[in-house]
Amino acid sequence: MTSSSFNLSSLAPEYIRAIAPYQGGKPISELAREMGLNEADIVKLASNENPLGISPKAQMAIDEAVYDVARYPDGNCFALREAVAKKFSVANKQIVFGNGSNDILELSARAFLHVGCEAIYSQHAFAVYPLVTQAVGATGVVVPALNYAHDLDGFLHAITPKTRLIFIANPNNPTGTLIAKETLKAFLKKVPSNVLVVLDEAYDEYLSAAHKSEAISWLSEFDNLIISRTFSKAYGLAGLRIGFGLMHADVADMLNRVRQPFNVNSIAQAAAIASLADDDFVERSYALNQAGMVQLTQGLSKLGLEYIPSSANFVSFLVDNAATVNQRLLQNGVIVRPIANYDMPDYLRVSIGLFSENARFLTVLEDIINDNK
Ligand SMILES: *Cc1c(COP(=O)(O)O)cnc(C)c1O
User: Fold this and answer.
1) Which of 22, 26, 105, 333 has the fewest C-beta atoms lying within 10 Å of its C-beta?
2) Angle between helices 266-276 and 78-88 (to 10 degrees)
3) Using a 6 Å cutoff on CB, does residue 232 contact ligand 1?
4) How confident is the model at residue 20 (pLDDT cuts 50, 70, 90)?
């Protein structure tokens, strides 16, 4: 950049310059570099990843698919589409695949939002909703949370003639709060049909049988419903970036118009197909998470710490001097997630890990809290 007349502010629109970049969980390699620690001694409980890794069937599929990377992937995800259609009893045309489910959120925004329109989401909701809204110059409307949960009546009141999209995460990240099925369905009935509702179900696999979403069966009733699902959480494929959306075929057609032709790589497609065929792995992941949730919440209670009851694979807890406690955890090789950027500066979010990882986190946390007394 040699020219003194180069002026970024005249190139990038104000709504792009106003975006606060997404802050992910700190990678293990980065903490190792910063603190001079061994990667093997670091416990990462910061990104809601599956501590069991991936299905052995997915691993085999990946090993096989690696040989074919000189070819472009199937841009229509034909085989995966068949598998998802069968598993979730939807038509092939109702499915859109994404480079992570974040891609589905972004495609929804790009297809339906533009400057002058509004998208509604909750205070403390997933950080990607404001990002994808701002990226297209639309206006985000934040509905204050009710005791950390979505206030759906507040959402209804926030709808204006400019509203095009509503984002709801159920369960929500980072609060772990869950909206009951009946409540959600009653809400959908009240949303005008010309407002699309993006229902983000990234953590559905962690819900008990009684709480699992039935929203897919509602698609025939609500043409304005977009359900997003991911392989990043219970399926363990976070690093491969694959998710999908289920919706009315005409809505899917719009998302596909703004989708990159090869947005899902071939290894991810192969791994996802194999993952869908391994219910046992998901069941084991669910069971480990249930036990780990009990271990962590009991441990937090024993330390006298309050937490928000969570329906997902993480829990957010209240702690004095959260930023300092986070720093001390890092120094001791434990990575959790500060969530000040979610308007929760006094909380830290910890993902449920292996029994030994949860225990390590609790021990280090106890030492920090005792030191501060
Ligand atoms: C983790 C998460 C996702 C998953 O994102 P991917 O792009 O599929 O990895 C989506 N929504 C929420 C609320 C999440 O917490």
Assistant:
1) 22
2) 30
3) yes
4) confident
